[in-house]
Write a structure and sequence with these properties.
Helix 3 crosses helix 7. The strands form four sheets. The chain has a seven-stranded antiparallel sheet with strand order 2-1-14-13-12-11-10, with helices on both faces. The protein is globular, with a radius of gyration of 20 Å. With about 400 residues, it is of the alpha+beta class. The chain folds into two domains: about 270 residues, DD-peptidase/beta-lactamase superfamily (Beta-lactamase, 3-Layer(aba) Sandwich); about 120 residues, no CATH class. The protein starts with 13 loop residues before the first helix and ends in a 6-residue tail after the last helix.
């Protein structure tokens, strides 16, 4: 599927890259911790190393090169790019109040207690929320999967985290607007449904359903032919099975690809986590990012826009150790800032892993991951299907293996 380039010509030691396959096989695939893995490493958008290990799932054949994966929160950077396309056209601005598009949010309050069997306590009126607060996860919204208090519990009751087949986008916004915020906007970082709200904003501003907007303005220009919200029935055999982590044991099957709910039409295109796609497609998205917003003549966003998105927007230049309230996110905290849809490395030494200042990345709930290193021109896309993504240190291990094989550094 991939025409691989000579690794040595692009600064990689082939023998060191060869360490990756046996490591993943012995540590994860053979014991069933990750029943399948795909990996693509590239430099300047040129593939140099590709792996395809494991099976499609329970009782199924070997992993297909064109396998479809639930990329979950790796949807978020795509939604963020879509919103910034509208910013570039001056259809909306980052500093605009969200009430310009969501009048439903006019009366938001801050959580002051209650929930569950007790009514929410009256909270004070929340400070104004801006679109930049949605993009930085500083909106005051939360996720039910944070599982810290009664507000998170109500999010779970409403199924906000997995709204695809439960409600239309307007109903999602109306239910969200009836609840208090976790905190005032622009104060704390909390991984949340913010990007789902941002996706609805793209719909309302563009007049298109989110999947249709993506298809026209991102997927078609980039040649991402297999990425969409949901899976066409004729492609059911390409959708891998989904698994759940079990301590000390092989992962547990939780959804078969052949009978997945993703084969049915959804009510809601989740900008925070709804896409299904292939390794090849997401590689093209990353190749566009490492090239400053352009690929094969298709300009998706301008270089200055992308630079703004991948700069740290946390107040005072803080990292996530100082501002994060999340029990779960797709990022480590030390030395990591957050931009407009991406985590970004601001202090490599604090991360305690090889990396570059300015690297940006994110991942998905099913342990998928990507990173883009604009200093070295290196990108990685990793696909598997085991939740939650905090189960194993595979992302850190992959970074270590990849950077240990990069012998011609540009830093």
């Amino acid at each position: 599927m991939f025409d691989l380039n000579d690794p040595a010509a692009l600064g990689f030691d082939p023998d060191r890259l060869a360490r990756i396959a046996p490591f993943l096989s012995e540590a994860y695939v053979t014991p069933g911790k990750l029943p399948m893995v795909q990996l693509l490493i590239a430099r300047d958008g040129k593939p140099v190393h590709h792996l395809n290990l494991g099976t499609m799932g329970e009782g199924r054949g070997s992993l297909r090169e064109d396998a479809l994966f639930r990329i979950a929160s790796m949807t978020k950077p795509i939604t963020s790019i879509a919103f910034m396309q509208l910013v570039e056209r001056c259809k909306v601005a980052l500093e605009d109040p969200v009430t310009r598009v969501f009048p439903e949010f006019e009366g938001l309050s801050v959580y002051a207690g209650g929930g569950g069997s007790v009514p929410f306590a009256p909270g004070r009126k929340a400070a104004p929320m801006r679109f930049v607060d949605l993009m930085t996860h500083m909106s005051g919204f939360t996720y039910g999967l944070q599982n810290r208090n009664n507000l998170d519990a109500v999010y779970r009751e409403h199924n906000f985290d997995f709204a695809r087949s439960q409600m239309e986008s307007d109903e999602f916004i109306a239910k969200l607007a009836a609840l208090p915020l976790q905190s005032d906007p622009a104060v704390l970082w909390n991984y949340s449904v913010s990007t789902d709200v941002l996706g609805v904003a793209v719909e309302r501003i563009s007049g298109q359903r989110l999947g249709n907007y993506f298809a026209e303005h991102i997927f078609a220009p980039l040649g991402m032919v297999d990425t969409a919200f949901g899976v066409a029935p004729e492609n059911a055999e390409r959708l891998v099975d989904a698994y759940q982590y079990q301590p000390g044991r092989a992962a547990k099957l939780i959804e078969q690809g052949l009978t997945s709910r993703l084969l049915s039409d959804g009510c809601f295109d989740s900008g925070g986590g709804g896409l299904v796609g292939t390794l090849a497609d997401y590689h093209r998205f990353c190749a566009m990012l490492v090239r400053g917003g352009e690929l094969d003549g298709a300009r998706i966003v301008a270089p200055k826009t992308l630079h703004l998105m991948t700069s740290n927007h946390l107040p005072g230049g803080a990292d996530l150790t100082q501002l994060s309230q999340s029990l779960f996110s797709e990022s480590q905290n030390a030395g990591i800032g957050f931009g407009l849809g991406f985590a970004c490395v601001i202090d490599p030494a604090k991360t305690l892993i090889p990396t570059s200042k300015g690297e940006f990345y994110w991942g998905g709930f099913h342990s998928t991951a990507f990173f883009v290193d604009p200093v070295e021109g290196v990108t990685m896309v990793f696909m598997t299907q085991v939740s939650p993504s905090s189960s194993y240190p595979v992302r850190r291990q992959l970074r270590t293996l990849i950077y240990s094989a990069l012998v011609d550094s540009r830093a």
